[in-house]
Amino acid sequence: MAQPMPTAAKLMAAISFGVVGWVMANYYAQNIPDAASLGPLREGAALVGIFIGWSVMGNSTGRGYVESAGAGIKTAVILAVVALFLLALGEMLENSVKMRYEDAMEAILSVVDTMAKRAHALLSLGVFGTILLGGILGGLLSENVGRRWK
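-> structure tokens emitted (150 positions)
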């Protein structure tokens, strides 16, 4: 199956949501007491934002500004959930190297448990505002670029 060509809207979506991911990770790290143990959280969230912006928001342009703003919020929520999942997965891999799990099922369940424990920081005003305002702005920028450069 042929892949669609890269477009300016996809590039703008990748750049926009890379920035949204980085800002969201900054606010998230402020609400975590052990932020030093998170590692390269900001850079990882920016990379996830680039990928999610390209694949999710980049394919949602061309339907109007209102729908693009909604798609931007959807993309930001997906970005937050995927970044939280990858953070929990990385923590599980670190613990599994240290032999802290009895079996594989315990390790898999610890990912869900870690996501649940770390999700409370997503409810802060900074993270929520970044999801809302950053998602809307990223969606509108992607739609505008998609209309200008076809």
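The mean pLDDT is 90.
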